[in-house]
Amino acid sequence: MIPRSRDPKGERVTCDSLSCRVAATPPDHWWPMSIRVSCSTCNTEFTLPEVPTNRRGLCPRCHDEFPVRAWQEVPSSPVSASEVARQNAPLPTTSRPAARKSRMLLLPLLMAIVGLGVALWAMQRPAQVQPPPELERPENEVLPATRLEGVGYLPADANIVFAVQPGAVLAYARRTNQDARDLIVKAGIPARVLDSLANLGLTLGQFDHIAGATSVSSDRFELRLTMALVLRQPIEDEEEFLARLKARNQTGAKGRHDVEFAGLPMTLARVSPTIWVLGVDARKDLEGVGGHGVGGKQFPAELAKMIAQNVPADAAAWVATNDERWAEKPGVKLAIELGLKKPEWLPILAQGRAAMAAISFGEQPRLKLYVKTVDDVSGKRLRTYFAQRAGANNKIQYGGEGESAFFDSPIDPANTFATLQQFLGDTAKK
Predict the structure, then answer these.
(1) How far apart are CA 215 and CA 255, in angstroms?
(2) What are the tens digits of pLDDT across the range 8-65?
């Protein structure tokens, strides 16, 4: 039913069960009122020509179909009676898309963190809605860090941010005829992590990218972790997937579930059919679920600058930190002394303020490091160490000035984590 209204000029309006019209207007033209609705999933407001016959609207932003229960009448342009009839036609329905399958390979540097957040996905999408354009790009194409949509759903107080674009990693594994599982295990990642993912029926080929963040406090220890998962295609059977996660709907919180993965309780939040956010602290870690927009500008200024200026445009996986005194943080001390059992690393961390590490998977994978130290003396010392590591190898680049130093070298991805450990160990001996 089209809402009754008055002509904007105040002329007499005649209404029947279909619409309203001005007496002086030709009988084949009508003055209906449009309605303004809000998507119940992402809160986007948009206009519909009338209340849909099936009382369901389709959001142009997140592509979710939702029940229309409330609306606001707004004036609209005159339309013909035939157009009114067309707009009253029910929405078409088509079959659901099938999920894509591919083999699985995780970046060694961030595997332990990424494995935690990969355990989620839900909600089926109508097949007539096409994925956003960036999800249609080739699997091995890499987007710059500032164009990753998932980064916009991370909390503003994050001081460590990372992202992985699995497509490039998977393409490298196929190109080099390597077995994904063997490569990951050799990198030092427990096989049980891979088993957990397999038990959930997930493969990295289903993901466009995974973005994550944590906030390490300077005065106390608290567990913080946020994962934003952006999928290429939805999982075929949402109910089965949630059942494997033992998901429980949160009372009074639409689209949120209590889940448990690897023994850790978390909250799963639905942003859209292809974006889900996972957080340990439901209030702090899911602060960005409303969306800050792409670019990472919500982060502290130095971290946003690090991501925009120092993360390579071709990085398939990267991690960046804010400019802070990391060796003084309780959580860092606990992780290094009790977790890694490397207390000798704390004095080395005390010489650094910010860092970035990235892996690119071109013809030859490369490890790229950027470090901001506490002063020029520490920066010069680190540049000297990088020069010694490079030796006469002209494929290795290094340099920097003042308090900064960078290192860019070919690398076997399976040795990434071991290489970073060696850097810290060598520096601790000096």
Answers:
(1) 25
(2) 444 444 444 344 444 444 444 445 578 888 887 777 888 888 888 878 888 887 677 7
* pTM of the shown model: 0.67
d(CA 383, CA 352): 13
Q: For 250-260, how does the pLDDT look when each residue is reduced to its tens digit (9 = 90+)?
A: 888 888 999 88
Where do the domains of the chain lie?
Answer: 13-87, 108-429
DSSP H or E run through 72: strand 72-75
User: Nearest CA to 107 among 174, 177, 188?
Assistant: 188
Task: Give bridge partners of residue 230 from the DSSP assignment.
Answer: 209, 275
Q: What is the mean pLDDT of the chain?
A: 77
- Other beta carbons within 10 angstroms of residue 424's beta carbon come to 15
**367, 397 contact by CB (below 8 A):** no
CA 116 to chain CA centroid, nearest Å: 14
Q: How much is the average pLDDT of 160-183?
A: 84
Q: What is the three-state SS of the chain?
A: CCCCCCCCCCCCEEECCCCEEECCCCCCEECCEEEEEECCCCCCEEEECCCCCCCEEECCCCCCEEECCCCEEEECCCEEHHHHHHHCCCCCCCCCCCCCCCCCCCCHHHHHHHHHHCCCCCCCCCCCCCCCHHHHCCCCCCCCHHHCHHHHHCCCCCCEEEEECHHHHHHHHHHCCCCHHHHHHHCCCCHHHHHHHHHCCCCHHHEEEEEEEECCCCCCCCCCCEEEEEECCCCCCHHHHHHHCCCEECCCCCCEEEEEECCEEEEEEEEECCEEEEECCCCCCCHHHHCCCCCCCCCCHHHHHHHHHHCCCCEEEEEEECCCCHHHCHHHHHHHHHHCCCHHHHHHHCCEEEEEEEEECCCCCEEEEEEEECCHHHHHHHHHHHHHHHCCCCCCEEECCCCEEEEEEECCHHHHHHHHHHHHHHHHHC
pLDDT in the model for residue 313: 94
CA–CA gap between residue 51 and residue 70 (Å, rounded): 10
Structure confidence by residue, pLDDT tens digits, 393-429: 999 999 999 999 999 999 988 788 778 878 877 775 6
Q: How far apart are CA 140 and CA 300, in angstroms?
A: 31
CB atoms within 10 A of CB 59: 21
pLDDT in tens, 368-386: 999 999 999 999 999 999 9
| C-alpha span between 226 and 24 (Å, rounded) | 61
DSSP state of 336: I
